[in-house]
């Protein structure tokens, strides 16, 4: 069985790593939400071998992630746990120094994002960092024509998906005790939003 492959992961993994590395130098543990194929986890942990990287995704993605991890044989990646962000019992009981997710918010329904921020505080250590990569709208508008076309394509596949508004996400983050510390412009009209936990867990 051929392992899954994401061309977008392959293309963006270097620039993402460059942007998130400063926020991970003093961290020890990372929870990755929606690990996809596992390609990001492998590339990041090869370079950041001081981290313990917990992969996670819906159960149907696990076999593909495990294929990648078995081939890579990297000691500091942990096999995926099942995590549907809207299922409270699936959230890990462990706290992490950082949480990372790429190309997930525009796939999720709005209620999934609400649920994610609601449950997130329980897995965040004190001063933990949340890093979200993907496209976002600002002031209710698409940042490019290509993002508008991409959003149309997403809606055709699943009417509940679509590019989310930055301001709405930031409000949910604030309600969860997170403060925005950076909004990084990335290639191809993407961003990395970086929040820090301000609650004393």
From TrEMBL:
CDD domains: AdoMet_MTases. It comes from the Bacteria. InterPro entries: DUF938, SAM-dependent_MTases_sf. Gene3D superfamilies: Vaccinia Virus protein VP39 (3.40.50.150). PANTHER family: UPF0585 PROTEIN CG18661. This is DUF938 domain-containing protein.
């Amino acid at each position: 069985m051929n392992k899954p492959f994401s061309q977008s992961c392959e293309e963006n993994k270097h620039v993402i790593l460059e942007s998130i590395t400063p926020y991970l130098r003093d961290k020890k543990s990372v929870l990755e939400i929606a690990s996809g194929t596992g390609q990001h986890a492998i590339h990041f942990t090869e370079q950041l071998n001081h981290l313990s990287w917990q992969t996670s995704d819906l159960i149907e993605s696990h076999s593909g992630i495990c294929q990648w991890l078995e081939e890579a044989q990297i000691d500091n990646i942990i096999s995926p746990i099942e995590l549907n962000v809207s299922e409270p019992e699936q959230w890990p009981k462990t706290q992490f120094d950082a949480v990372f997710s790429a190309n997930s918010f525009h796939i999720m329904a709005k209620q999934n994002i609400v649920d994610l921020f609601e449950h997130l505080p329980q897995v965040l250590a004190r001063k933990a960092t949340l890093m979200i990569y993907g496209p976002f709208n600002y002031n209710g508008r698409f940042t490019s024509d290509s993002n508008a076309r991409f959003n149309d394509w997403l809606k055709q596949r699943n009417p509940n998906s679509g590019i989310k508004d930055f301001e709405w996400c930031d409000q949910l983050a604030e309600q969860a005790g997170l403060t925005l510390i950076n909004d990084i412009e990335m290639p191809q009209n993407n961003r990395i939003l970086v929040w820090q936990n301000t609650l004393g867990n």
